[in-house]
User: Fold this.
Amino acid sequence: MEQTFISSIRLNSPVEKDSYLNKLPVVRHLAGMDTLNFSSRVTFLVGENGTGKSTLLEAIAIAYGFNAEGGSRNFNFTTKGTHSELYRHLTIARRAYPKDGYFLRAETFYNAASYIDEVGAAGSYGDRSLHEQSHGESFLSLVQNRFRGNGIYLLDEPEAALSPSRLLVLLAQIHELATQHSQFIIATHSPILMAYPGAEVLELTQAGISSVDYRQTEHYQLTRSFLENPEKMLGYLLEN
Ligand SMILES: Nc1ncnc2c1ncn2[C@@H]1O[C@H](COP(=O)(O)OP(=O)(O)OP(=O)(O)O)[C@@H](O)[C@H]1O
Assistant:
């Protein structure tokens, strides 16, 4: 088993009865299990839209000490306090302390970039304001310039901004950082990313959370069937 910074999480108290969080299968599942273990250097959270991947990742990030809207653990800004209360109910088992860390969310990346400009920290991000780069460029710039290794990196749908070739660059960066003793927990829909060798793929479904081979995921199977025979699938889809 590899040494990870976050080795497991558990629900330490019941979520408020009238909260929407109780309806999320991931929360119900956590309530019914002892711990959810993170034993690989790279863990993917996958599943259908709305299954609670971002909610879980955000709660892990806040409980670990990150700013709810993203950034390093030194970031301290809020533009819209929309995060859930789940973090209050999470206990995180830490096996070691990282030298670096970042919580990256596609949806609040713009606000994090503004904060970096405001505090004059662009030097650590490739010496160019992230706002002067395209979404994908700024995203990769962040990973290439700011992620230093020996760190914990929580990424929410990093593929959102990236072309397929840049996604492969990201995969190589993840590998380099993982071999430098980093841990990644990544919510994703990308069958390319989740193919990272040795990664654990945790699939969130209505039934709860299970560890699967990435080839078993709907993301992989649907993308593969489509690309193998687009005409067939489009025929079914569009015939009416
Ligand atoms: N403030 C809220 N009140 C009620 N329901 C909410 C609230 N915030 C989120 N939800 C619901 O929680 C569910 C889980 O949302 P979440 O963003 O975690 O899903 P996800 O798995 O990350 O989805 P996606 O793949 O689309 O990013 C969604 O069905 C969403 O509508």
